[in-house]
Specification:
By secondary structure, chain A is an alpha+beta fold. Chain A contains 6 helices and 10 strands, in the order βαββββββααβααββα. In chain A, α3 packs across α6 and α4 packs across α5. Chains A and B meet through β5, α2 and α6 of A and β5, α2 and α6 of B. The structure holds a DNA duplex (30 and 30 nucleotides).
Chain lengths: 231, 231
DNA sequence: CGGGAGCTTGAGGAGGATCAAATCATGTGG
DNA sequence: CCACATGATTTGATCCTCCTCAAGCTCCCG
């Protein structure tokens, strides 16, 4: 168990004008003039793996656009089990529910080193008409992420799920792909950490993946696709 | 396999002014004046169980607000398996993605007799500013439904999942609760139809539920909650 | 060097899938 | 009205996957 809550690391202010992924973020439709009217500075936050952005039940005061890295969103079951219900990546927005609710629905934690921009909810509300189109896009992205988790990562045998996870991560990182802890794999795939470990080991043995550094893998997409599709 | 596609039954025009669930639907924030500017009539559609509203990949031309009943949203996996990724009920909106995409993401089918209102996407786009707040609410609802499916219905043992399904349906219908086909239960819970059948039978034997008519159940919420929470 | 956290691996057992067959419900045509 | 076909549900028997419990292992840090 790790609970490093304060590792969310304030890192300075972001300049929206020359954001590298301007076309992906919530502010994509704003022009230079609009950006000037934002006198609140946008905070640039860096997260180490394991650092949490916000917790379920906390007062929802800001949205976060993901510029880099990978985050998980988790919720508790009635019986106390922790389940990862969605993954967030570059271009996604964490905490959209701040716009309609008083509290966050999930705990959101970095799986890989991440960089996010913090957007106070009043700011977004104020710009809301201009952001309308992008907000729809982001909501739609949230729905798709979540359906992807049910469809690809919570269906079929454990081997299929692990293979599909590698394939999904493949889309993110291009060449090699960084994997996270076995415990998180379990929470995401709905299997135990032991099973996750066993299957990764098996994939290594049969050459579907190759570990070039601790938790850094090269993948044989063909082999993985074969496993993902049947048995 | 059942593919009754044309059973979506046009049933006349709806009158928004005296909608029984005005406060729940997308148009909640519109006033009488706004409603008059809608010269397009709103179609009122009735769906029999098994009737489909639209299919994945079809051109997305309309949104549908659910006034009554229960719908499923399903998607295909790479290997051809069909998986239910979300349930929709009274107040939810089907096909929100029409606002941002050209095609529907899911196939949406009635599980129980349902009544929906068809809202052409141009109409919603035109009213968009006025609907902004409600649109956010509906998107948020879509995300929550989906997370609920992952969290409650795709986690834990088959017994737990079935018990949680009964509890979720309990919230919808008040006294007794109508269940759908074992095949759909399987697709929703990520188990086989046989297992679904076995567990429902077991629940009947041990008195957790009682079948008063074919597929109509009374539930012992306490017993179900006990099962849902552990073993 | 010793401790701790995460990862790996093993043995055993339970839960669920699979294959197969019997029962039940519905509808159709004779 | 009955014989029959069709499809869903139930139940049984067997096998395999994955969970559980438990022990080693590796790496890092004090």
């Amino acid at each position: 168990m790790k609970g490093k809550d304060a590792e969310a690391d304030w890192h300075g202010f972001a300049s929206c004008e020359d954001c590298g992924i301007r076309d992906l973020v919530l502010f994509a439709d704003l022009d230079g003039q609009d950006l000037e009217t934002i006198h609140l500075p946008i905070e640039d936050i860096h997260l180490a793996p394991g650092a949490s952005l916000y917790g379920a039940g906390q007062e929802a005061v800001a949205l976060y656009t993901v510029r880099e890295g990978l985050l998980k969103q988790e919720q508790y079951l009635p019986d106390g089990t922790l389940r990862i219900v969605s993954l967030l990546r570059r271009g996604d927005v964490a905490g959209l529910e701040a716009l309609v609710a008083a509290e966050y629905e999930h705990t959101t934690v970095a799986l890989q080193p991440a960089k996010v921009c913090r957007l106070p909810k009043e700011l977004v509300s104020r710009l809301s008409p201009k952001l309308h189109r992008q907000l729809m896009n982001k909501w739609n992205g949230a729905v798709q992420r979540s359906h992807e988790c049910t469809r690809e990562l919570s269906t079929g045998t454990a081997r299929q799920r692990v293979a599909r996870l590698f394939l999904i991560l493949a889309a993110a990182d291009s060449a090699s792909c960084r994997l996270f802890s076995r415990e998180d794999m379990g929470g995401l795939l709905g299997i135990t950490t032991q099973t996750a470990s066993r299957i990764v080991a098996e994939f290594k043995r049969q050459g579907a993946v190759h570990e070039v550094a601790p938790n850094l893998f090269e993948r044989s997409l063909d082999a993985l696709r074969r496993i993902a599709a049947e048995g």
